[in-house]
Amino acid sequence: MQKILVARPIFPDVIERLKQHFDVDWNNGDALPADELARRLADKDGALTAGDPIGAATLAAAPRLRVVSNMAVGYNNFDMAAFNAANVLGTNTPDVLNETTADFGWALMMAAARRIAESGQWLRAGRWEKWSFDSFLGADVHGSTLGVIGMGRIGQALARRARGFNMQVVYHNRSRVAPAIEAELNAQYLSKEDLLRRADHVVLVLPYTAENHHTIGAAELALMKPTATLTNIARGGIVDDAALAAALRERRIAAAGLDVFEGEPKVHPDLLTVPNVVLTPHIASASDATRRAMANLAADNLIAGLGVGPRAGRPPNPINPDVIGKARS
Ligand code: GLV
Fold first, then answer.
1. Would 302 disulfide with which of 37, 69, 133, 278, CB 3.0-4.6 Å?
2. Domain 98-279 is in which class?
3. Ligand 1 within 6 A of 73 CB?
4. Which residues lie within the region annotated Disordered (predicted)?
């Protein structure tokens, strides 16, 4: 039987599925440090990860490893150049999380705009003594302009919801989406700078790459309206968190909603002390149904990638399909 490592805690029924095909080493504890991960991968044919960094050194320490299945749509934890050089297949879990993640983007954006978290904390602190006409005045979402940076599948699901709120949609993306999609979403393409100047609520839904590092920093925040909100459901590192905390503290923008952070699970200490930010611990895809779908899809990818099960050799979501069928190097 081939051997696999499941590097993170995961639904036990998915472990049972994997056990039908593999000898499973399950780390049902904290994320493994790099040396321990490499040690546990040394005799494995495959692995199921969730954000664990896999680079050239880890692959070199695991000469049998042929497939690494990430339980996430984002795979910036994989060094894909190293995967390609070693003929190791990487897979991810796109699509099953689009709608759930778009729902959450709206939840964060609306919470930021309408000051839900900030006013809730104030109430819990026992500070609510009287109704006041100017308590926690926020920004309207309906009728405003939504700015989506990253118009992929999740960005489109997010933009589609704007119709019910009678919003204008502007977007920025590496390349323009097809005219039919622009028409369906009633979305106008803008440069990043023009979008930041125009939008009332900016939502980031782009993948993290070296080029996207600090896509939003001090200069970009300076372009935004003082009444605007910024929501990040994409990846830590896309926003310069220190610059954002300063802009929030000085009210250069009104509020932010953040689900992802530079260096998470650590959070920049300044973000923990500014009141006008809604903070959540990387849970945008965390509905019960969607996390189960992601875990099962990650298992499907691993099973098929390692050449067993009903889709043997045809994993649903290969990131680098060119390596399929090539010998490990
Ligand atoms: C979550 O962050 C994902 O990439 O799926």
1. 69
2. alpha beta
3. yes
4. 309-329
Domain range annotation of the chain: 3-94+288-323, 98-279
- 212 within ligand 1 shell (Cβ under 6 A): no
CB 101 within 8 A of CB 285: yes
- Ligand 1 contact via 72 beta carbon (within 6 Å): yes
Residue nearest atom 4 of ligand 1, based on CA coordinates: 74
Note whether 302 and 69 are within 8 A (CB). yes
Superfamily of domain 3-94+288-323 in CATH is: NAD(P)-binding Rossmann-like Domain (3.40.50.720)
| pLDDT tens profile 3-18 | 999 999 999 999 999 9
Alpha helical stretches, state H, the chain: 12-19, 34-41, 56-60, 80-86, 98-113, 116-124, 153-160, 179-185, 192-198, 218-223, 241-249, 269-273, 288-305
Assign residue 95 a region (left: φ > 0; alpha: ψ between -120 and 50; beta: otherwise).
Answer: left
- Do 98-279 and 3-94+288-323 fall under one CATH topology? yes
Smallest CA separation from ligand 1 atom 1, residue: 72
Please state whether the peptide bond connecting residue 318 to the residue before it is cis, i.e. omega within 30 degrees of 0: no
Q: Whose CA is nearest to atom 3 of ligand 1?
A: 72
Q: Residue 269 class from Cβ within 10 Å (0-12 exposed, 13-18 middle, 19+ buried)? A: exposed
Q: Which positions ≥6 away from 193 have C-beta within 8 Å?
A: 220, 223
Q: Give the number of the atom of ligand 1 that is nearest the alpha carbon of residue 74.
A: 4
Q: Is the pTM here over 0.90, yes or no? A: yes
pLDDT in tens, 223-274: 999 999 999 999 999 999 999 999 999 999 999 999 999 999 999 999 999 9
